[in-house]
Write a structure and sequence with these properties.
about 550 residues, mainly beta, Immunoglobulin-like, six-stranded mixed sheet, about 40% strand, globular, binds 2-acetamido-2-deoxy-beta-D-glucopyranose, binds copper (II) ion
């Protein structure tokens, strides 16, 4: 089991005339033994890669300003690394986790202690393996509580619960992706959606029960919902109940009510559930959102919200159906409702000036492959660059000035503009390959327009940026219009997050300030797209002095 131990207790005097305020800033220690564990789902048993034998893994609980130390010990046969998804890692890129980007993997039998401080963030995030497809089963919640004595900007919930959404394959997940890489085709879709590790029930076998969330009537519950699925954006809905959205990706939002939330892989959403209905069971449904001709796991994940009653009276279940798989309007309504809280305590610091204006065309492609089924393989690219993983980490190469690992010439624009979302106007769907990064001076402001392409087919791409939060200043369908569209940008209270879905056949514009030195990965959080090369990295230079510079690497930093 994960444990945390109180270490430091720091007294801070706020102002000279104010009474002394006790601020508890602690070091939280966790030990993650990464082990194989046999688990049974959908009537079959297989060994999976887990933290401490748990699926999902243990929840990390800490407060804003705490330092978290996680000693990861690799007891499995795979190379390993863990990413603390959404944690800013200010100056601590060594602890970010993506293999070959910020670190070499923790090899079998080895250990590494991730060491990071939670600065300026509170809410729900999660951790997951960041190598191969191990994150399918190696993931868990990170709960960042506000500083001691600082309330939520909404009524304190009676209780808080974590709901981790995932995908389950009957087969070994590494076998699934290896088979796809060999054939050059898309991998098999998952066999079930999970809610806190539980799949739907299967008849005629000793399957698990649905996950039951026991609640009391007449209370407010905060649900910390995490999409840890590999390849699917999900709808989430509870029968007969509205949900009040209060936070996404560990940033507060302007509260709004909805009956359905949409959540992409890599995103987190906190909602308030009011248990204001009569005693009973209320079905929770989780189903994919896909408005492009892409095969998905169309099964529905199920759980129950169960209002406690006295005795063992049988409860009737109130059912609900998820939105149709192609319910774009439902998804758009949700996305358009998200606004930053932008209060005095939590202002939206949207960059108003842009130093680097980037336009990234993102999508699929096809490259030759002699050994593949069709003589070709599906790939993915950003500005026609299919990213090639280096063999030592980019961060090490950058820090130690090792040449020949990457080039700092990632294109700011597509090499050949085309009608991105039109019918295929490009005869050659081939891409170029390279390990190229985009270099930014410290504190530069960036506007990045992510434009989906219809090159093979349009598709929604949930983009995740490491090391930063960004503001989502605009989105639209079709091709981005650099003259008209910026006029409609929201530069006042756009939602701030770390992962955003680029709509299928459309675009999204984000802004951020490059105030974190290091190498920061950016990629589609559909694992198959990342595998196919939909990834790149930003290199952010050190600023002035040690407070604006990357720290020195830790002693136990893994070597290649
Ligand atoms: C796990 O299950 C496999 C069969 O799928 C079996 O061979 C193995 O012994 C089991 N391992 C453990 C630790 O139970
Ligand atoms: C964690 O990192 C901080 C610097 O960021 C350092 O002072 C501290 O000693 C580190 N802790 C451990 C256990 O390595
Ligand atoms: C993928 O699905 C195909 C068709 O159902 C099946 O034959 C194959 O064994 C599956 N691959 C894996 C790795 O499970
Ligand atoms: C789900 O997908 C399967 C296989 O792709 C298909 O046969 C089935 O009709 C689909 N079910 C629904 C409800 O769309
Ligand atoms: C969604 O898919 C269904 C079934 O294929 C189709 O009838 C419907 O028109 C689609 N809706 C939208 C909004 O595309
Ligand atoms: C989307 O929101 C609009 C305006 O609030 C509403 O009229 C419409 O019914 C909503 N559509 C869906 C599918 O939720
Ligand atoms: C590749 O092969 C698959 C299966 O044989 C086929 O469905 C698909 O259309 C082919 N794709 C291309 C680009 O040739
Ligand atoms: C792009 O393609 C779409 C769909 O084919 C078409 O409607 C649009 O006019 C094209 N745009 C340009 C600039 O060619
Ligand atoms: C794309 O081309 C097809 C066939 O030529 C046509 O039916 C379809 O309307 C076109 N789509 C758009 C968006 O122009
Ligand atoms: C992408 O690069 C490849 C290889 O250089 C080239 O053949 C192709 O035309 C380029 N495509 C686009 C859209 O720029
Ligand atoms: C970053 O830039 C902003 C706006 O130009 C400026 O106000 C701020 O002082 C700069 N921060 C640092 C650390 O240089
Ligand atoms: C594990 O990582 C090391 C260092 O990068 C590498 O040399 C080795 O080949 C990797 N092992 C596997 C099985 O990929
Ligand atoms: Cu993608």
């Amino acid at each position: 089991m994960a444990t945390w131990v109180e270490r430091g207790l720091i007294l801070v005097i706020v102002g000279c005339l104010l009474p002394a305020i006790l601020v508890e800033s602690r070091v939280r220690h966790y030990k993650f033994n990464v082990v194989l564990k046999n688990q049974t789902r959908l009537c079959s048993t297989k060994p999976i890669v887990t933290v401490n034998g748990k699926y999902p893994g243990p929840t990390i609980v800490a407060r804003e300003d705490d330092t978290v130390l996680v000693k990861v010990v690799n007891h499995v046969q795979y190379n390993l690394s863990i990413h603390w998804h959404g944690i800013r890692q200010i100056r601590t890129g060594w602890s970010d986790g993506p293999a070959y980007i910020t670190q070499c993997p923790i090899q079998p039998g080895q250990a590494y202690t991730y060491n990071f401080t939670l600065t300026g963030q509170r809410g729900t995030l999660f951790y997951h393996a960041h190598i191969l497809w191990l994150r399918a089963t190696l993931h868990g919640a990170i709960v960042i509580l506000p500083k001691l004595g600082v309330p939520y900007p909404f009524p304190k919930p009676h209780k808080e619960n974590v709901l981790v959404l995932g995908e389950w394959w009957k087969s070994d997940v590494e076998a699934v992706i290896n088979e796809a890489l060999k054939s050059g085709l898309a991998p098999n879709v998952s066999d079930a959606h999970t809610i806190n590790g539980h799949t739907r029930p299967v008849q005629n076998c000793n399957s698990q029960e649905l996950f039951n969330l026991h609640v009391k009537p007449g209370k407010n519950y905060m649900l910390r919902i995490i999409n840890a699925a590999l390849n699917e954006e999900l709808f989430f809905k509870i029968a007969d109940h509205h949900l009040t959205v209060v936070e996404v990706d560990a940033t507060y939002v302007k509260p709004f009510k909805t009956d359905t939330i949409v959540i992409s892989p890599g995103q987190t959403t906190n909602v308030i559930l009011e248990t204001n209905k009569k005693a009973g069971k209320y079905l929770v449904v989780v189903s994919p959102f896909m408005d492009a001709p892409i095969p998905v796991d169309n099964t529905t994940g199920l759980a129950n919200i169960r209002y406690a009653t006295t005795g063992l009276t049988a409860l009737t279940t109130t059912l609900t159906a998820p939105p149709p798989i192609n319910a774009t309007e439902v998804a758009n309504n949700f996305t358009d409702s998200l606004k930053a809280l932008n209060s005095k305590d939590y202002p939206a610091k949207v960059p108003q000036q842009v130093d680097h204006s980037l336009f990234f065309a993102v999508g699929l492609g096809v490259n030759p492959c002699k050994t593949c089924v069709n003589g070709s393989r599906v790939v993915a690219s950003i500005n026609n660059v299919t990213f090639v993983m280096p063999t030592i980490s980019l961060l090490q190469a950058h820090y130690s000035n090792i040449s020949g690992v990457f080039t700092a010439d990632f294109p700011a624009n597509p090499p050949t503009p085309f009608n991105y979302t039109g019918n295929q106007t490009i005869a050659n769907p081939g891409t170029s390959t390279g390990t190229r990064v985009y270099r930014l001076p410290y504190n530069a402001t960036v506007q990045l327009v992510l434009q989906d392409t219809a090159m093979i087919t349009p598709e929604n791409h949930p983009f995740h940026l490491h090391g930063f939060n960004f503001f989502v200043v605009g989105r639209g369908v079709g091709n981005y219009n650099p003259k008209k569209d910026p006029k409609k940008f929201n530069l006042v209270n756009p939602v701030e997050r770390n992962t955003i879905g680029v709509p299928s056949g459309g675009w999204t514009a984000i802004r951020f300030r490059a105030d974190n030195p290091g190498i920061w990965f950016m990629h589609c959080h559909l694992e198959i797209h990342t595998t196919w090369g939909l990834k790149m990295a930003f290199l952010v230079d050190n600023g002035k002095g040690p407070n604006e510079s990357l720290i020195t690497p830790p002693k136990d930093f893994p070597k290649c």
